[in-house]
Amino acid sequence: MSKKDELAAQLKDLPSGPIADTLKARVVGLLQSCWDELSGSNYTKMEARKLDRAETLKWNPPRLQFTIERHGGYLVGGSRAELQLWDVNLETGIASFEERGYRQLNALSPRLRVEPIVDSVIEAVQARKTLPGDALVWVADDQVRIKQAVLIPDDASKQTMSGRRKRFRSAMQSAMATIGWDIISERPALKFKKKVAAK
């Protein structure tokens, strides 16, 4: 008897609907043992070892269905996991899935208001001052360097930080243009040059 047939035999006499928690470990174990035999089982790099995270198992003969968290985005700095609904047809030996949204794994960082930070930089530029931590440094009489990494600290997920710094750069560029400064560089820090007054 194949592992797939062994799983089908285990489920055969169960009523349709949710699978009891007392059977979950046995069913998941059998599913893991036959996973590589199923057509479509390797979509989205799904592997048998990941099935330990399977939840809300349901038996709708001949289909075994379950939801599972996928952590690809989370592992590269995101704050949530993708949810997938998998459908395993034990008659045809085909596994398929559909996306079912996301689950928040980490608390969302509060939205950062960049405007007050921009305002403090503008005040320093107009007063020809520097800012602590070399956040604002005068490179020349008509050039300043602004370190967004100091002003927007790295205290959130990669995705959140990227969004915060993008909003800061945009607001900073707009505010500096208003007082007569052009951006001349964005990396590794923002660098602005005072516009030459028209004669």
Characterization of this structure:
The protein has 199 residues and is of the alpha+beta class. Helices cover 33% and strands 28% of the residues. It has six helices and nine strands; from the N terminus they run H-E-H-E-E-H-E-E-H-E-E-H-H-E-E. The strands form two sheets. A five-stranded antiparallel sheet has the order 1-2-3-4-5. A hairpin with a 2-residue loop joins strand 2 and strand 3. The protein is rod-shaped. The termini are far apart.
Residue share in β-strands: 25-35%
Overall shape:
rod-shaped
Distance between the termini: 91 Å
Strand adjacency order, main sheet: 1-2-3-4-5
> For the residues shown, what is the average pLDDT?
87
Order of helices and strands: HEHEEHEEHEEHHEE
Percent of residues in helices comes to 25-40%
Describe the main β-sheet briefly. Answer: 5 strands, antiparallel
Helix/strand class: alpha+beta
Tally of contiguous helical segments: 6
